[in-house]
Specification:
There is one protein chain. This protein is α+β, with helices and mostly antiparallel strands. The protein contains 23 helices and 14 strands. The relative contact order is 0.15. InterPro entries: Bact_solute-bd_prot1, SBP. It comes from Paenibacillus foliorum.
Amino acid sequence: MNKRSKRMLQCMTAVTLISTSIACSKQSSPAEVKSTTNNSQPTAVTYPLNTNQTLSYWGLMGNTNMANFFSSIGEAPFGKELAKRTGVQVNFTHPPQGQDREQFNLMVASNELPDMIETNWFNNGVYPGGSQKAINDKVITPLNDLIKKHAPNLNKLLEEDKELAKMLQTDDGKYFVFPMIRNSFSQVYRGPMIRKDWLDELGLPVPTTIDEWETALRAFKEKKGASTPLSIIYSNTGGMDIQDTFIGAFKTSAGFYVNDEGKVKYGPSDKQYKDAILLFRKWYNEGLLDNNFAVTDAKANNNKILSGQSGSTTYLLSGGLQSYTDAMREKNPKFNMVGAPYPTLAKGETPFIGQYDFKVEPSRGVAISANMKKPELAVQWLDYAYGKEGNELFNFGIPNESYVSNNGNIAFSDKVNKDPKYTTIQILSQYTRQNGPFMIDERYSKLILKYPQQEEAVKLWSATDAKKHTLPPFITPTDSESKELAKLTTAIKSYKEEMQLKFIMGKEPIENFDKFVDQMNQLGLPKVVEIYQAALDRYNKR
């Protein structure tokens, strides 16, 4: 057997073992860990803690900029300052980007678990069956009593914010992670954007309806010479990366969503989804939509915007809008990319859906291994991030090095803002934890917004009904439901992507749309919707 075959066999074995042999190999239940009753009050924690115990932590570095300077969080100024303040030494292990799922499977199957594991423990995460199954298999520890007694900062947040508490529980009420908590600015960070300098030249407004968009795109092509007026990113895993821009105008979505009656629906099976496909097909035929959209990645999309081939896209607040403005400031001072509202069919309507992330980031939660005999220290160490001093360290770094504070008003230092070689974000990455188990401070988001166009874009992109119609990622299918979802959803998604491309490009007659829906039903779509609905109903009752 060659090395590659051995590696594949290891991973296949790992995935199988996660849900079977692990449960048998454990000797003690998380419930046997010393804890307090639910009536206990949190114990005041004084830092630095008095301990000689070293903790272990596994997870992605979560900060590609930091990885350019250090191989571990512990080596960075942030990590060293955190160790000094908490009195706890932590050995960090970071799997390579893109290999984290594979290494997670091998690690769990071996039962050689670190004290803390940062990954996606929710329904759509890395552990088959999600958090409840991981607790049942005695891979991770339920945290209710531990938080109540040893994490006063997080405990206070959970008591004050019932919505947050709901997101962090299993259906039977068990807490299982220390979360990454977004602020309002970091919940909406992606949306449609357009060249306002071109619009101004042409005497056109920033478009708000489908008709206005079509007018603008046609003018970009005919009067500005744009070869691809609308450029979009296509991903092999996610398909058209437009966050339901244009699709939402037809009161539907490119994936699963919740309708006005609280029922789970799958957008591509809606009759009105056909209208969205017809719109893209029309724009594709007229050259308003990039004819090469199906092979356009982020780099190619950026090149089309910066070269003037395209005047609009759907992309990121910082990595897109800000980066474009930065790149063109000297080359073309008139360049002005701005955010546009999610378009609707009728003027003045509230957009049905758009990009919206809930206040908890699912992929950055930290669970505590059930192998850990005395988890109290890990709980106290993690809780530091949710207090005032920890919050400022995680968000702004070290006082008088990366930031200065004057009566609560925080500003980044010249060391961060005026480095001759690196950007503000790159320097700041050495002093802060840009992803991970902490709360993103409102002040942080406002500090890193470089241009007024960004702040205005967030306001426009936030003015949707996305919160109401987005299926929460915190729903928890049962073990049997999860197994059925794994079998059905991949085939449905692959078929949908294949047919959607054919419809848009004219390779499949639009008259076959009903047959397309019938085939998805044959592949098990009604069962998937039924499972998600049951999980959503349980979530709403938490």
